[in-house]
Amino acid sequence: MATIDAVVFDIGRVLLNWDPEGYYDRRIGRAAREALFAAVDLEGMNLRSDKGEDIAALVEEYAAAHPAHADLIRLWHSDWLQMAHSLIPGSVRLLRALRSRGVPVYALTNFGERTLAMADAAYPALTEFDDRFVSATLRAIKPDPEIYARLETETGVAPERLFFTDDRPENIEAARARGWQGHLFEGPKGLARRLVAERLLPEDAAAV
Question: Does pTM top 0.85 for this prediction?
Fold first, then answer.
């Protein structure tokens, strides 16, 4: 196995708790949330934001198209920070431990520009990368090969020397297809064990 020169983190559900379903469940109840998500393609709306469209404009577009749900749709923007409600502390500790040992750390994330600015202001730890590769800025999105290629080109790190953690299997598989080493994120403890196994962190620095 090749030596790893850099670690690449996804952000949503790896470093940042992103849970719109939970937010709406608390707000209107699970049944009403399921009905809302069935009637309105809110995930599709968010994907368009990740691809570079402005979330505020998208929310108004969808609210106009679904007037019966307009107030609930608008919450996707006004209450966004209640959906992205907290950092995942163990993951942040691992990011900082890697950087403290001189390991380059990058973000590769599907994220809208406006919402990432909101997240950065609320959670400054999300800015603690050597560089970030953001779908909305690059107009390329995981798992499309282009966004992985951009990171390879701009960092100058060979694919087999990149280690990538993401919560979505299809994003990990796309990275592995390019030769990256991948870890499906299911929690900080599993990631910590893998980083120790790869000799990127000693056990005492990987406690989460």
Answer: yes
